[in-house]
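Request: Show me your protein:
***
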Amino acid sequence: MNEPHPKNPQKTEKSRLDYLWVAIFCVDLQPMKEKLFISLLACILGMTAAYPQARIILPDSSQITTNPDSLDLLPRQAPEDHEPGLQPDRQAGQASHLDHLLHDHGAEADSLRRLARMTIWKIDARTGNRLPAVSDTLLHNYQQSVLPDGQSVAMGFLAPLGSPAFSKIFTDRPETEQFIFNNAYYLYLKDPEKVLFVNTRVPYSRLSYNRSAPKQTREERFEARMTSNFGKKLNVGLDVDLINTRGYYNSQAVKHNNFSLFGSYLSDRIEAHAFMNLGSVTNAENGGITNEQFITHPDSIQQSFTSTGIPVKFTNTWNSLRNNRFFLSGRYNLGYVETPADSLHKGRGLFVPVASIGVSSQFTQQHRRFLSYDTAFVSVEGVEMQRIDQFYANRFYEGAVDDSIRFTSMKNSVSLSLREGFKDWVKFGLTAFLEHDLRNYSMRDSVGPGMIRHRESAVTVGGVLNKQQGDNLLFNIRADLGLLGANLGEFRAMGDVETGFDIAGRRTTLSAQAYVKNLKPKYLEENYYSKYFRWNHDFGDIRRVYVGGKLYIPFTNTTLSAGVENLQNFIYYNKDKQIAQESGNIQLLTARIEQNLRLGIFNWDNQVVYQTSSNQEVIPVPTLSVYSNMYLKTKIVNELTLQLGVDAHYHTKYFAPGYEPALLQFYNQREKEIGEYPIATAYANMHLKQTRFYIMYYNVASQFLNPKEYFSLPGYPVNPPVFRLGVSVNLHN
C-alpha cells in the first residue's frame, strides 16, 4: 500500500482533505434536517480531531479478492492471531451456512471473515455466545440493499422507505414478537442480537447517505458507524440510522431516529458486551388511495395531477412507535494456560477456555400510539361521524382516535457452557441457560375510564449443542422449554446440520434444517382495546413443524433449497380485519433456486421461489416469485469497479394481504389480487477503493408497460418512476 510518511505535512494535509471531500459530497446532495448534519459532522470532526493522521486506506488493486465485501479488500490476518472464543477463518469457499438457525437467533449465515484490522461477530443474548458474522459493506448489488424491495425476493410495503413491510416469502418472516406492533417495522428496528460487535486494531468509521429526488417528495437515509478500540480488550462504538421520507403520495411521511451505543471487553477470562438503543418511528397514515385508476389508467382522469394529488382515504393520522433497549452481558471463562513445548515460545502460554459462566440482563421499553386529527364531520347514510370513522364498522369510544399502549420487559438469564475444542476429543460445545422475563402491559380502556394493566412473567430453561469447527460436519441444535408463568408448556427445538465435500478442488455443501415449535399466543393477540377494534380471546397453542434442505453446487454456481411446514392453530387477521385462529392443519411447501450465470463481463443472477399453501385464505402466498438481475461488471482503469444493469422483482397474482393502520397489521383481504407486474430498476453501481456509490432509476418498467399496475399491496402503489442515488465510505484511521 502507498502509505504517507508521518513526517510529510503535505500528505497529512491531503488526508484531512479526504474527510472534507466526503462531507462536502454528502452535503451537496441535499441538506437534511439539522440533526443529520450534527451526527455527520460529529463523526468526521471527532475522528479528525482524535486522530490527526486520519486518512482513507486505499488498498492496492492487486489485493482485491473475489469476495464482494469492501472490507475484505484488506489483507487477511495471520491465522495464529485470533480473538478468544472465535475460530480462525477457513479456506476460501468453505464458509459455513447454518443460516436457518442462525437467522432465528440473530447471527449471519457465514463463516467469520478474518481481517488484518477487524474482527466482527454477533451475540446470543441468552447465552452470551459469540457467533461469527460478516460485515455489512457489500459491494455487489449495493443499490438493492437500500430499497425495501431488496430485502426479499418479494416484499409487501406501503411505498416509502421506512414504512411497514413484510416478506411475501412465508419462510422469510420472523417469529411474532411479544410487542406485536414491532413486526411491521422488523427491517429497521435494532436489538442486541442484530448489532455487529467489533474488535479493531485501527479506528473505523462508515458513512452512508441515500436519497431520491425531487425535493418535495424526497426520501433520505443517513447511516453512520464509528468504532474504536482502547487497547486490545475494550471496544466502543456508535451507530446512527436516520430516515426522513416526505412521501410520493399524500400523507405518507415517515421518520426514523435510531441511536445506538455498543461496546465489548474481551480478555482470556472475562467477556462482556453492552448495547443501548434509543429508537423512534413516526409514520403518517393515509389508508391507501381511493381510486386505483389514478395509477392504472391515468389518461382516464380528465385533469392533470401528480402522485401527491391522488385522493387518499384519510389525512392527519399517525402511527408512532418508540423502542428503547438496554442490554448487558458478562461471561467468565474457566480454563488453563497451555505452555508450548517449543523453546522459542517460552513464556508465551496460550489460555485454553474449558467452560464459562454467563449472566445477561435486557430491559426493553416500547410504546405505540395511533392518533388522528382527521375529525371533520361527514354524513354517511344520514349518520354524522368523523371523517376517519366512516372506514370502520365499530367505534368503542367517541371523540378523536387516540389509542396508546405501553410494554416493558425485563429479562435476566444465567448460562453455563462447555467450550468446544479445548481438547482434541471434545468435538462439540454445550450450553445450558435459565431465563426469567417480567412483562408489563398498559393500554387505554376503550370502554371505561383509565388504563388497563397486565403483568406476567415467564421462566424458560434451554440449551444449545453445537459444532462450529472443522470442515466435514457442522451442526447447531437448540431447545427451550417454558417452565413457569405465561409460557408454561411453550417449546422450541431447532436444528441445522451441514456437511461438505470437495470435487475437483471445488467445495460442495449440503445442509438440512428442521424445527418443532409449540408457541403460546402473545398477550396482545388475545387481549386488545382500541377505538375501532376490541377483543378478548382464549387461543390455543400454535404448533409448527418444519423440515428442509439446501444444496450448493459450485460448478454451476447453483443453490437449490426446499422445505415443507405444517402449521396448526395459526393466528392471523381475517378479511374483516379481526384476529382469528385456524384450528385445522395448513401445509406450506417452499422451493427455491438461485442460479448465477457469468460470461466474461456479462452476469445474470436469478432467484426463483415456488410456494403453495393448502389454505390460501389463512396463509396467502404467491405461487411464483422471481428476482432477476442482468448486468455488466468490469473494472475501469484498474481503479473503478462498475456494475451496470437492470433488475426486476415479479410475482404471480394472488390476494396479497391488505394493511390496516389502526392495528398496524397486515390482514387477509379477498377483494383485490396483486401481481404479474415487474418492479424494475436500471442502475449503475460503482466501487472506488473504499467508496461505494450508485445511481438508479426506480420503477422503470412503468414507463413502457400499460396498464400501470405497480401495486405492492391493495391501495398502496410503490413509488412512481424516480431517480435515486447514494454513497457509502469506509474510513480506516
